[in-house]
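ARCHIVE CARD
CATEGORY: sequence design from structure
SOURCE FIELD: tokenized fold
FIELD CONTENT:
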């Protein structure tokens, strides 16, 4: 079983690096990866949007996550070992770490 950990400083940098508008935190994911992303999907996911960081991807899925083509494109099966948390949780984890 793999475990991914980010330090408080890394979480702070991840929150600060977000360039997407967060309209609803539960539909906005941060996917954390164990290594830098080498390949990124190039399909048009509109109205969904994404941003890629060094070892994370930010996914805006306004219609929800269950049937989201964007969320499926960034799963661990395609991109490597990962875990995802919604924006509300990421911000709360940073608050708790501070």
């Amino acid at each position: 079983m793999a475990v991914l950990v980010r330090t408080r400083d890394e979480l702070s940098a991840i929150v600060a690096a977000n360039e997407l508008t967060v309209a609803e935190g539960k539909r906005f994911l941060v996917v954390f990866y164990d290594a830098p992303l080498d390949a990124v999907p190039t399909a048009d996911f509109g109205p969904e949007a994404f941003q890629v960081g060094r070892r994370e991807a930010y996914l805006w899925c306004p219609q929800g996550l269950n049937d989201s083509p964007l969320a499926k494109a960034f799963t661990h099966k395609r991109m490597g070992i990962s875990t995802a948390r919604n924006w509300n949780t990421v911000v709360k984890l940073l608050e708790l770490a501070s």
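CARD ANNOTATION: The chain has a mean pLDDT of 90. Residues 31 and 74 are 8 Å apart (CA to CA).
SHELF: design records, drawer C
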